C-alpha cells in the first residue's frame, strides 16, 4: 500500500450492508478453500450483518472510501464468554471482536492488522479495559494476527459453531 491510500475506521451504515455481505461471502469461501469449518454452517448470514449495523455493532475500515474490512464490536455482551475453559485476564468491561472479514480486493495488504490498531484505539477512547476475541482452531491467519498484536491465549469458549480459542488483550 502506498501513503496515497486514505484509511478510515467508522461505524457501518445501512448503505454499506450489501458490500459488507459480499465481503462476508468472500471470507466464507476463503475459509472453505482453506479447509476450515469456521463459517461453513450458514453463519454469519445477511440477517446477522443487518442486525450488527442496526444495533451499531458493525464497523468498517475504508480505503479511499471503499469498504475493505468489516468487524462487529460488541460491548460487554457475549454469553459464551461467561463460561471459559481457562481464565480471562480481566473481569471488567470489554469489547468483543466478531466477524472480521477482509474484501478480496484488499486481501494480503495487512488491513486486518491495521483494523486491530483502530479497534484498540476505539476501545481505549471508550475507556474500556480490554478486548476479547475468539477464533477457530484452524483459522491460522487470525491466530497469527492475534499473536502479532499481543493477544494472550486464555482458553476455550463454546459457541454455536463449536469450540473456539479465546484471547484477550488488556489495554488500560
UniProtKB/TrEMBL annotation:
<dbReference type="InterPro" id="IPR000182">
    <property type="entry name" value="GNAT_dom"/>
</dbReference>
<dbReference type="Pfam" id="PF00583">
    <property type="entry name" value="Acetyltransf_1"/>
</dbReference>
<keyword id="KW-0808">Transferase</keyword>
<dbReference type="InterPro" id="IPR016181">
    <property type="entry name" value="Acyl_CoA_acyltransferase"/>
</dbReference>
<protein>
    <submittedName>
        <fullName>GNAT family N-acetyltransferase</fullName>
        <ecNumber>2.3.1.-</ecNumber>
    </submittedName>
</protein>
<dbReference type="GO" id="GO:0016746">
    <property type="term" value="F:acyltransferase activity"/>
</dbReference>
<keyword id="KW-0012">Acyltransferase</keyword>
<feature type="domain" description="N-acetyltransferase">
    <location>
        <begin position="7"/>
        <end position="172"/>
    </location>
</feature>
Amino acid at each position: 500500500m502506498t501513503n496515497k491510500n486514505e484509511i478510515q475506521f467508522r461505524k457501518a451504515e445501512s448503505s454499506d450492508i450489501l458490500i459488507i455481505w459480499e465481503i462476508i461471502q468472500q471470507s466464507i469461501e476463503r475459509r472453505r478453500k482453506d479447509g476450515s469449518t469456521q463459517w461453513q454452517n450458514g453463519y454469519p448470514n445477511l440477517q446477522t450483518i443487518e442486525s450488527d449495523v442496526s444495533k451499531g455493532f458493525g464497523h468498517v475500515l475504508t480505503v479511499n472510501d471503499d469498504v475493505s474490512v468489516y468487524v462487529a464490536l460488541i460491548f460487554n455482551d457475549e454469553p459464551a464468554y461467561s463460561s471459559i475453559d481457562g481464565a480471562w485476564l480481566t473481569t471488567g468491561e470489554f469489547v468483543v471482536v466478531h466477524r472480521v472479514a477482509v474484501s478480496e480486493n484488499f486481501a494480503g495488504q495487512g488491513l486486518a492488522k491495521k483494523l486491530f490498531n483502530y479497534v484498540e484505539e476505539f476501545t481505549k477512547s471508550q475507556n474500556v479495559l480490554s478486548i476479547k476475541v475468539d477464533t477457530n482452531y484452524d483459522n491460522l491467519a487470525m491466530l497469527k494476527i492475534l499473536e502479532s498484536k499481543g493477544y494472550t491465549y486464555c482458553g476455550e469458549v463454546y459457541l454455536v459453531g463449536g469450540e473456539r480459542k479465546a484471547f484477550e488483550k488488556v489495554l488500560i
